[in-house]
Amino acid sequence: MALSVSTFVEWAGAGCVIPLLPLYLRKLGAPVGLVGVVIAAFFFAAILVQYPIGRLSDRIGRRPIQLGGLVTYAVASAAFALIGTPIAALFVRGLQGAGAGVVDVANNATVGELVPPSQQGRAFGALFGSRTVGLAIGPFIGGLVGISAMRWLFVAAALASLLACVPVLLAVPRSGWRHSHVVAPRMVLWRDRSVLGVVMGYASAGLVIGVYEVCWSLLLHLRGATGWQIGLSWTLFAVPFAAMSVPGGWLVDHFDRRYLAAGSTLMSAAFAASYPFLHSVWLLVGLGAAEAVTVAVGGPALASQLAHSVPSRQLGRAQGAASTAQTGATAVAALGAGALFALQPWVPFVGASSAIVVLVGLLAWCWRGVPGRDSARAARVEGRSG
Q1: Residue 344: exposed, middle, or buried by beta-carbon count in 10 A (0-12, 13-18, 19+)?
Q2: How much is the pTM?
Q3: What is the CATH number of domain 2-172+190-385?
């Protein structure tokens, strides 16, 4: 519960600036290609820190990492309010990415440690849902406030990140390991097919996120959407996602996680490929909301599959590896999306969708014969951690 509250507050603040950030960067004088580079800096910085910080959290506990990440994001957001050039934005956005990236790794690892396996789907659903509720509120506020007040929105994001530290301090234990006296054998992650499949799933999500981060607002703007309509589109994606998060988590706890993750990912690819060929703003907004219903199942399915595959004391390292794959894919997609959008608006959307189909094929190959429900394999993992 504390993590859900903290995540909600963090992302409500961050969400205020996300939809209008590409347009704000254009106002600062950044060409479309540089907009993609600045957005990508967030993810490249996270790549550098997620795996090593995940390993560190296995040793010192999750709470120091969560607090350090939130404070880092707050400092970077406050700095964003003071800058006036695209180059400065590049560095500050990178610092934001480093802070947000390590918080996500530590949060996911904490849920995997503290929640019983039979309830992890719902717990991850609640965590991801609270993030999305924040994103439902933040972008709508940002769209109403508008680009002219972006500096104040950055200040609000900084304050929200600091406020998100309070639930972590009050309720998250210093050490969350269920069996801290036992040292489990160290897994070789790249040899475990279950983990490899999760990595493919995370990378697939990263590709579409990177394209949306850069191109969604630009596409709506190209179709004639106003600032409040752009903000509303993010909100209307977030609301059904949040509403579906707990029911989706229930599905993850009761059905095969592999099929849920693969199906959700393929549906997202189909939606993404269709968007650039639509010209109605409201049709784009409505289909975005429909996509959210399917996407809400994929994240909990992948996170739960990872938690069932790795001993508790090694979840930080495993989550760091999976998150690095997602963040790396997001960074690559965001880096090229701006230039590809300038070439033709459909290219980044269709390109990402095609790559996702390939990754889902690799995911299916990795997961052949791998349990996707509670089974003897899950029991053995629990035994290794206890």
Answers
A1: exposed
A2: 0.77
A3: 1.20.1250.20
